[in-house]
Amino acid sequence: MAKTCADHKKAESDHAKELDHCKTELQLAHEKAILELEQKYHATIQKLKEEKQAEIDKYKEEVKAWRLGLDLSKVEGARKLLSDAGISVHIVKMQPSGMGSDEEVDYAFKVAKAMGAKAVTDEINLETAKRVAPFAEKHGMYMAFHNMPKKALVAIRS
User: Fold this and answer.
1) CB–CB of 144/119 below 8 Å?
2) Residue 120: phi, psi to the nearest 5?
3) What is the full DSSP assignment across 70-84?
4) Range 74-107 burial, b when 16+ CB lie within 10 A, else e
5) Which residue blocks in the chain are alpha helix, DSSP H?
6) How far is the C-alpha of 15 from the C-alpha of 62, rounded, in Å?
7) pLDDT tens-digit profile of 32-83?
């Protein structure tokens, strides 16, 4: 049986529809694969963040233990060495803003006092000022703030 022009056009149309259907299925499969990869990527990143945070937390605990375990007679010994060399310590930069516990902030003032300082200093920050003020008062000392914006550090290093 001979095919007519209409038969050829219908076959062409059917092939075009089939091709469009295949393209749609391929596109959906591609989008699904990308979504699965993105989910795996984000899960991996989250796991790495959690692992890194665990390392950071462990480090902070180790530093805290070291700080709180420091014998202040060693600090007083350092003060004597400086004093014998004619050097007086007026301010100690301890950065209480980076200390995670009240015990560590208290430690900062104990160390500064043992060094003969009148103040502990940190970069200016209202939260730190509010948090640290009671410790400064408790030790009869000052909390001094300096302004060292991060932009300045970048400019200095450049």
Assistant:
1) yes
2) -110, 140
3) --HHHHHHHHHHHHH
4) ebeeebeeeeeeeeeeebbebebbebeeeebbbb
5) 5-69, 72-84, 102-114, 126-139, 150-157
6) 70
7) 888 888 899 888 888 888 889 889 899 999 999 998 998 999 999 999 999 9
